[in-house]
Amino acid sequence: MQKLTILEQGTDWLIINKPEGLTVHNDPNDVLHILRRQLHLQASQELHLVHRLDKETSGLLLLALHPKTASNLATQFQDRQTEKMYRAVLRGTLPHNDELQEWNFPVSDKAEGRKNPQGLAKDRVEAKTLFKVIKSNSYFSLVEFQLLTGRQHQIRKHAALARHAILGDPRYGEPKYNEKMAKIYETSRMFLHAQSLSIVIHGERRNFYSESPPEFLNVLSPN
Fold first, then answer.
1. What is the pTM of this model?
2. What is the pLDDT of residue 2?
3. What is the rounded distance in angstroms from the CA atom of residue 16 to the CA atom of residue 59?
4. How far is CA 111 from CA 118, 181, 192, in A?
5. Is 38 exposed, middle or buried (0-12, 13-18, 19+ CB in 10 A)?
6. How far apart are CA 4 and CA 190, in angstroms?
7. Please, which residues have CB within 8 angstroms of residue 103's CB and are 6 or more apart in sequence?
8. Which letter does DSSP use for residue 108 in this model?
9. What is the pLDDT of residues 155-195, one digit of tens each?
10. Which listed residue (54, 98, 109, 169) is catalytic?
11. 99, pLDDT greater than 90
């Protein structure tokens, strides 16, 4: 039976390190089903997703075991009261510096595609992403992201619009390039990871962290 890594657990909440390639819901073998079996929950016991991660994204995922707790935590996400940081490996070289930069391409709040990441003009709304380049080489850049707005696939869309698509992104990246890189680095994953989360749980500010997957640094190693 597949098991998920539970990083910390309270009386009515838990936070896991979700692997890439695993959907969070609407699948017989999704996060909710796996955790229900892993925690030996009864049919009457509830398990709620507080927020979502794309199937292709790895990292921190918060869940609740009580509807009131789930509602309180979800409200913090909706009202931008949480602090979330992501890391990604992008195609191409971005200048390495310690300054925060911003992408502010307007995008739709829908899942789009590689040919038009922004979506239809009539659907586009404000979208702001802060980023800092951590490390780069001749082929890739390791970048840290903070979302100031919460549009669907926002980091993925902004990276593609900046012509630095996330490595391995099946929706917004170039398929032939992704296939070539998958063969070279022996992984077809998308290089996006939810790395840190700060949120108030029962009146206490809690800070959680998940190390970047080792393959993130492997592709940035000296060539």
1. 0.94
2. 85
3. 8
4. 10, 24, 16
5. middle
6. 19
7. 127, 128, 129, 131, 158, 161, 162
8. -
9. 999 999 999 999 999 999 999 999 999 999 999 999 999 99
10. 54
11. no
Q: 20: closest CA among 222, 193, 218, 200? A: 193
Give the class (CATH, top level) of 83-223.
alpha beta
pLDDT digits (tens, 9 = 90+) for 79-88: 989 999 999 9
Q: Is 12 a catalytic residue?
A: no
E strand or H helix that includes residue 90: strand 83-91
- The CATH T-level fold of domain 1-79 is Pseudouridine synthase (3.30.2350)
Closest CA to 53 of 183, 220, 218, 210: 210
Q: Which residue intervals of the chain bear CATH 3.30.2350.10?
A: 1-79, 83-223
Q: Are 172 and 129 in contact (CB under 8 A)?
A: no
- The Cα–Cα gap between 182 and 171 comes to 15
Instruction: Give the type of residue at 121.
Output: A
